Amino acid sequence: MIAVPLKNPLVPMIDVEAAEERLKGVIQQTPLMPNLNHSKQFAAEVLLKREDLQTVRSYKIRGAYNKLASLKEQQPDLTHVVCASAGNHAQGVAYTCCRLALQATVFMPVTTPRQKVDQVNMFGGNYVNVSLVGDTFDEASQAATEFSEQHQYPFIHPFDDPEIIAGQATIASELLAQCSDQAIDYLFVPIGGGGLASGLLSVIKQHTPQTKVVGVEPEGAASMAAAFQSGCNVKLPQISRFVDGAAVQQVGEYTYAICQQYLDDVIQVPDGLVCQTILNLYNKDAIVVEPAGALALAGLHQYHSKIKGKRVVCVLSGSNNDITRIEEIRERALLYNGLKHYFLVRFPQRAGALKEFVAEVLGPADDITYFQYQKKHNREHGPAVVGIELNNSHDFEPLVQRMKAGGFFNDYLNNQPELFSLVL
User: Fold this and answer.
1) DSSP labels for 298-341?
2) Active site (annotated) includes residue 317
């Protein structure tokens, strides 16, 4: 296959061949697996690049090992490095430092799932010290940068570094070999800081420029889209932290420049759809992914008509999900699908009021899943917060009508984020 050189001056700095050599014997060549369920759902050939099965259970080991091994080649006396991460990059750095006998100070947000913190300590052993700082990756990164400058230790950036990007680009080399029989029509890739997307673009757009590469961001942390819209690499003032592996306020300078020139589209998906995708993968395919790992597949919904009959690859980027989050994931999926609703219900403080509500207001398949009844309020009309799970989203309007007819309806909370977060 003849490569067509890309004009962006940053691309020649991304030495994929050197990265492939360094990573031999370190990473797994992850499988590219057809997915029957999603192929049928979207009437396309949907293939999953299973980086969730990678060493440290995410693609981040590729960039982390390539960067640190390269640094060790340049500085044989190197003893200590610093990094900041929301979890997966830290695990890659920890694994590498243990393998190369390097000390590392790892800065992670306080909000990082416990499972990811534990994995960093496990992979790094005595070579790694974890410091939890700030609520977001960007705050942890600021602390890490200051620590790096203070102690003169190299800072290992999670995405904005040519050697990190080159490590992630080795995924594209594998994809080209695995799809040598037929080109990829669409490649969906999750975007946080943009390192993975930049790596894939630097290879794919040289060898199969006709492949459409679509970046998928969390709706609440769409930093790449914001940069595209502004025409410069802006920093979002606030982001949602739910998709922790892609919750970045500002993408990288290298990654922005590459993605701006070669990315065909960048789309955003809501957290609820991400959650439903996680549950579908687990229930139907026995695949466990973290929220960021489900982004690419969740993005297919916006391309339903365009990908029909096409060969589509989605990168499942990681599987470091904390099992304690499963109830939150299920709740968000139910809310997204219109199957979970919260109300402020007016209950008369008299015997039989709740029985009447259950018998005459709830439908036969409706279920009360949350109930907080406060008798300290007006004794004749004491309100309660009630969560109701429906079997079908079409049952919502009839339910509200019955509540109003019976004098039980006080307020609907799902569409009032501030009040919703206060009471639940």
Assistant:
1) HGGGGGTTTSTTSEEEEEE-B----GGGHHHHHHHHHHHTT-EE
2) yes
Cβ contacts of 402 within 8 Å, gap of 6 or more: 360, 361
Categorise residue 226: left if φ over 0, alpha if ψ from -120 to 50, beta otherwise. alpha
Catalytic residue among 60, 205, 212, 340: 60
- Residues 221 and 240: their CA atoms lie apart, in Å, by 6
The pLDDT tens digits for 267-286 are 999 999 999 999 999 999 99
Show the domain range for 252: 24-58+169-330
Tell me the per-residue pLDDT of 311-350, one tens digit each, with 9 for 90 and over. 999 999 999 988 889 999 999 999 999 999 999 998 876 7
Instruction: Answer yes or no: do 273 and 377 share one domain.
Output: no
CA distances to 111, 331, 344, 417 from 423, rounded to whole Å, are 21, 15, 10, 10
- pTM of the model as a whole: 0.92
Q: Is the pLDDT of residue 8 over 80?
A: no
| Of 173, 198, 317, 319, catalytic | 317
Residue with tokens 């008798």: 375
Residues 342 and 325 in one domain: no
